Structure formats: structure tokens, C-alpha cells
Amino acid sequence: MNNQNVDDHNLLLISQLYPNVYTPLVPQQGEAKPARRRKRKSKSVAVAEEGGAGGNGWFRKRKLSDEQVRMLELSFEDDHKLESERKDRLASELGLDPRQVAVWFQNRRARWKNKRVEDEYTKLKNAYETTVVEKCRLDSEVLHLKEQLYEAEREIQRLAQRVEGTLSNSPISSSVTIEANHATPFFGDYDIGFDAEGDENLLYSPDYIDGLEWMSQFM
DNA sequence: TTGTGTTTTACGACCTCC
DNA sequence: GGAGGTCGTAAAACACAA
């Protein structure tokens, strides 16, 4: 048995003893899937091939087991940062290389950050959509109020014409008719403006005061 | 079965902090 | 200067539709 075979044999034994912890790359019996050749070697594999420290093949595994991931997740929930003491403890508890634990935390932090950005985006999007709906509602309210104003103007005009008819024989009737026809503002003449308090209001433009004077004739 | 998109593991480059 | 962080990306594993 050469060195590689010894390593594989050891891995097989370990994976049988700790099926939830060790997930060796060594193909199991009946497992036909050949490992695809990597362009970039992982450090542990490179070390193993060189026969260096820790390079006896014991850590030649890829996907972490469910149990390992579960323990790492628990630890991550505790604290997203990884002090070297915790890293070493986790590594020995899970039978992993401390480097693997560090890498797992790096990747987990990246995923967590992505998720946070995604959540933030969703929240902003919802807020934007709510604002758009509210704007539509306000626009429609403005339209409704303008219609009401228009109806009020029509009513005032009708009243004015009735007054004109009533006073047609009076000496001042001609001047009232002229002024009313000249000064009556119509719906389209109103616009958004600002009152004395600086609040937005529907104002008669171009001359709101004239409008008020015109109204006062009928009060 | 195969092509394709996604997830997971791992690494190098670079940065910050002590 | 070393340890440990982020960022970008390669590559393997995995999921899944066609």
C-alpha cells in the first residue's frame, strides 16, 4: 500500500466512524463520480501532495457535512466575528482545519451582508410604492376638490344671473352686469398658490384679491 | 443526459488595526 | 509586520428544466 492508498484508507475509516463530520473526497464504493480536475489547487491538496505539515490527506474533503454547517451556523449566530481561540476550538470540535473555519466565516459574512442589502432594497422599494400610491390618492383628491369648486362657481353664476334678472329694472343693474361678466373667475383660472401662512392653497390667479371683491358683491 | 444557473468552498489581492 | 477583515472570482457541487 503506497502513501496515497494509506491516506485514502484512513479517510474511509474516519468517515465511517464520523459519518456526519467527515466527507472525504475519496469515492465510496459504488460511487462512480470522478473528481473533476481543478485548474486552481486548493491549499490543503497542494500541501498534501507535497507531503508537508498537515499534508497527509486527512483534510482532503470538500462540502462540509450538515452537522458541521449546523454547528458553524450556531456559532455564527453567537458572533459574526471569529477570534482565533474560537476558531481553533471550533476547528478541533468539528474536525476541520482552522483555515476552513475562517474561510467558512468569511463566506458566511459575505452571504449575510448580501442578504442585508437585499432586505434593505426590498424595504426601500416597498416604501417607494406606498408613496406612489399615496401620491395618486392625493392627486385624485385634488381633482375631486377642483370639480367641487367648479360646481360652486357654476352655482354662483346661476345666482348672479338670477340677481341680474331681478334687478333688471333697477338703476344700478347695468353696472352689476358689466362687473359680474368681467370679474367672474372660472374653474380654469384657479391655481395652486401660497396663503399668508405659507400653506399651499387653491388660489384665483392672476388676481386673487379681485376675486374676493367680486364675491363680496353678493354677500 | 445535458446544458445552465445557483450555491458552496477556497483562494489571492488588498486593506485596516494593533 | 502579522492577523484577520472585505472583495472578487475560480472551481466543484448541486438543482433542475428540456
Automatic annotation (TrEMBL):
It is found in: Nucleus. Residues 28-51 are annotated as: Disordered. SUPFAM superfamilies: Homeodomain-like. Pfam families: Homeodomain (PF00046). GO terms for molecular function: DNA-binding transcription factor activity, RNA polymerase II-specific; sequence-specific DNA binding. PROSITE patterns: HOMEOBOX_1, HOMEOBOX_2. Residues 57-116 bind DNA. Keywords: Coiled coil, DNA-binding, Homeobox, Nucleus, Transcription, Transcription regulation. GO terms for biological process: positive regulation of DNA-templated transcription; response to auxin. Residues 107-169 form a coiled coil. One of its GO terms (cellular component) is nucleus. Residues 55-115 form the Homeobox domain. CDD domains: homeodomain. Belongs to the HD-ZIP homeobox family. Class I subfamily. Transcription factor. This is Homeobox-leucine zipper protein. It comes from Arabidopsis arenosa.
